[in-house]
Amino acid sequence: xxxxxxxxxxxxxxxxxxxxxxxxxxxxxxxxxxxxxxxxxxxxxxxxxxxxxxxxxxxxxxxxxxxxxxxxxxxxxxxxxxxxxxxxxxxxxxxxxxxxxxxxxxxxxxxxxxxxxxxxxxxxxxxxxxxxxxxxxxxxxxxxxxxxxxxxxxxxxxxxxxxxxxxxxxxxxxxxxxxxxxxxxxxxxxxxxxxxxxxxxxxxxxxxxxxxxxxxxxxxxxxxxxxxxxxxxxxxxxxxxxxxxxxxxxxxxxxxxxxxxxxxxxxxxxxxxxxxxxxxxxxxxxxxxxxxxxxxxxxxxxxxxxxxxxxxxxxxxxxxxxxxxxxxxxxxxxxxxxxxxxxxxxxxxxxxxxxxxxxxxxxx
Length: 364
Hints:
Blueprint: E1 10-11, H1 20-27, E2 39-46, E3 50-58, H2 69-73, E4 76-78, E5 81-85, E6 91-94, H3 96-109, H4 117-130, E7 142-151, E8 163-173, E9 182-187, H5 204-208, H6 211-219, E10 224-228, E11 236-239, E12 243-248, E13 253-255, H7 266-277, E14 282-284, H8 289-298, E15 301-308, E16 312-321, E17 324-327, H9 336-349, E18 360-362
Helix pairs in contact: 3-4, 7-9
Enzyme class: transferase
Catalytic activity: L-isoleucine + 2-oxoglutarate = (S)-3-methyl-2-oxopentanoate + L-glutamate; L-leucine + 2-oxoglutarate = 4-methyl-2-oxopentanoate + L-glutamate; L-valine + 2-oxoglutarate = 3-methyl-2-oxobutanoate + L-glutamate
Function: Acts on leucine, isoleucine and valine.
């Protein structure tokens, strides 16, 4: 069995690539995740053979047997990252090594084979090189990259599969949320994850389980849902697909600690690093919803924001519950601490701020 580190990618030419004119039209105002680039990456895994058959090929439909394990037992994981046009018109990806590590952690939790970090990054690089003309240059624009893996073994039986497909696809995107602060709904009906579950893994089931709660938020005219912990139903954990931060009137910030029920966000980790370098007092600790409501009313809580790959940093203006709502900091946009963190994060991603951590991974 050859080493996965030695895999060479076969490049299959696209018979009908998107014309420059059509591509410009599609990229003028892309809805998030709706526009596909021309190519995808595919690598196969088979027990006893390992990772093999690495290809860059025209994006197209996949063929699966109706008994493919993913369709019945949900062995599936994914990642999300972005490629950016830099200040010198190059292309860089933000912290793909962190995505590669988290992907392996998710695979381990879901009893799936571990793809080497180097092979994961090479696969992402190959797709970005193939579709480099799809990387937009606007201030809020980027190429969203989605690596994912699923069990395609054809059998009916509850056990880890023996065959898997790893793919990478991409889409040019604009801002995830519209301008201004968002309104969030605190769900007291549904929980996202429980101790011992899959909350720290980036698997599709976590997101499927959040959709009804998200619909509940929409029914209450909110942009996103906030989940409480599954044990006490008091402590804030995370949003439907993002981590959450709180800024207090003494200049300190806090975010829920990683306890196994919260996704270890790469944007979250980056913000913690940036905040500490700015000299801010940073806490990772439980924060109860009743305390948040009290702190917002008293003025102790002055800013709240969501963060994630898709949304970057997005201010939260209103927290709504079944018993009423509070406005955070009496503003409709980002507060000064939120904005200062966002400026450094986005500046680093686009090469405007010196990268002192090796976060920028240059592709071109």
